[in-house]
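fyi for ur records
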Amino acid sequence: MIDMLSVSLVVPLLQQYYRNAGVHSAKQREMLSSLFSSSQIAGGLMIGALSDVGILSRRNILFLSFLGSAVSYALIIVGGLRSLIFSRVLVGLVKQTMTVSTGLMSQYTTEENRGTFLGRLSASTTVSWIVGPSLGALLYKHVGPVAPCAVASSLFLINSVLAAVLL
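which gave:
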């Protein structure tokens, strides 16, 4: 839930961050979105291949995803078009938490309770996407434009600590 809350604080505000970085045309925004999507496909394939040959465990993929996402969202704070482009490519390459979380749920649950735990994962994602955009907008408006990204980066770091302690 912390992971998706972090994402949902910032993603709905990307259009505003794009404008702040000087991206004004729809073509430019679509290019940035395409960079993220392409990076996510490439990252998924690379991380999957490294996992298949035993170089990366699911736990290490979570750390890579959380820490890479923290850096990515912090780059939005830096501002500017280059930082925004690098941020979207980086998060696309490393953000594989839902895939790994689903895999971990399947691995560590029995057939009898798997549906319950996967349902809870889905419900927590839904709650995050209900609460996060409003919270992100409030932070942006009342604290400042960097606040949603700072909170998201911090939450990703907290997630890393929790994963280190609990997994």
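Helices lie at 2-10, 14-20, 26-52, 58-78, 81-94, 97-108, 111-142, 147-166. thats all i got for now
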